[in-house]
UniProtKB/TrEMBL annotation:
Domain of life: Bacteria
InterPro entries according to UniProt: F420-G6PD/mer, Lucif-like_OxRdtase_MSMEG_4879, Luciferase-like_dom, Luciferase-like_sf
UniProt keyword terms in alphabetical order: Oxidoreductase
Pfam families: Bac_luciferase
Species of the source: Nocardia goodfellowii
Identification of the protein by name: F420-dependent oxidoreductase-like protein
Length: 308
């Protein structure tokens, strides 16, 4: 699984039905995976389970569930349900969260890296052993009943949307890889991948999320990117990696152009150390160019397939 698409719909009459429809279109183009962000109106592991069961050609993943406001016991159960439903094609993505998310739960956004470490420690114990006896400063996980779900095999990959030095260290020690977003090739290759690799005991996965679209309307797509991605310009963790790349705003990191331009942009991320790439914001230029983008991804995926 080296190329995927992050799905998000607008103006849906039924978000779940539309997600399945889009996933089928992605699979028809030969793309290997679809990913779902965690919002406040749907549950991403449940959506991934439904889509993965309806479209068995695809790997499915969540990117990413904030640990703020959640507990390892609940996330373990959700992940195992999705893994069993998809017969082993689910990838669990977690995030530290933000003050915005914490505020929604009425929870202080303090010590996020310490919380991440405790969350991952308890979660890995639950997933790997079927129980836990974890007593941390910030959370406790001591289930009175077994937590292993029949059919939830193989081992569920746990990935983290980590980009800062401390979060990368914890992720390297306790998870299987990272889900960086808006971290350009230079930042990925010079900052993020080396820090992660130093902390990891095995070769980590680097699943880079990259806004991109194949289109002839470059100016229109760039203007839409400025509008769609403006939120990230105000978030400190994203602002940091945007500036490290030498960009002024998130939209500057979007790859927009013809097939050759987008393919070359994707290759730069592989050259920087990404093991997998997921395109986001493929709807920047409308439905026709979104299909054009997915078609290119399928062609690139076929070129990278070991069978070829």
């Amino acid at each position: 699984m080296t190329l995927g698409v992050a799905l998000a719909q607008t103006n849906s009459t039924n978000y779940i039905d539309d997600s399945v429809h889009q996933a089928r279109a992605v699979a028809a183009h030969g793309v290997g995976s679809v990913w779902f962000g965690q919002r406040m109106d749907y549950d991403s592991p449940a959506l991934a389970a439904i889509v993965g069961r309806e479209v068995p050609a695809l790997q499915v993943g969540t990117s990413a569930i904030p640990v703020i406001g959640r507990h390892p016991l609940l996330v373990s159960a959700q992940a195992q349900t999705a893994q069993a439903a998809t017969h082993g094609r689910y990838h669990l993505g977690l995030a530290l969260g933000s003050s915005l998310v914490a505020g929604a739960f009425g929870t202080p956004f303090d010590r996020p890296v310490a919380r991440l470490r405790e969350f991952l420690t308890a979660l890995r114990e639950l997933l790997d052993t079927g129980t836990a006896d974890f007593h941390g400063e910030l959370l406790t996980a001591t289930p009175p009943l077994p937590t292993a779900l029949a059919g939830a095999q193989p081992r569920i990959p746990v990935l983290v949307a980590a980009m800062g030095p401390q979060a990368l260290r914890v992720t390297g020690e306790l998870a299987d890889g990272i889900l960086p977003y808006l971290a350009g090739p230079r930042t990925l290759g010079e900052q993020i991948v080396p820090a992660l690799t130093r902390a990891a005991t095995t070769t980590p996965r680097v699943v880079a999320f990259v806004p991109a679209v194949v289109t002839s309307d470059i100016e229109g797509a760039r203007a839409e990117a400025v509008e769609q991605l403006a939120f990230y310009d105000q978030v400190p963790s994203y602002r940091r990696v945007i500036e490290l790349e030498g960009a002024q705003r998130a939209a500057d990191l979007a790859i927009i152009g013809d097939e050759e331009t987008v393919a070359a942009g994707i290759q730069r991320y592989y050259d920087a150390g990404a093991t997998e790439i997921v395109l986001t914001a493929t709807d920047l230029a409308g439905a026709e160019d979104q299909q054009r983008t997915w078609k290119l991804l399928g062609e690139l995926a076929a070129q990278r397939s070991p069978a070829r």
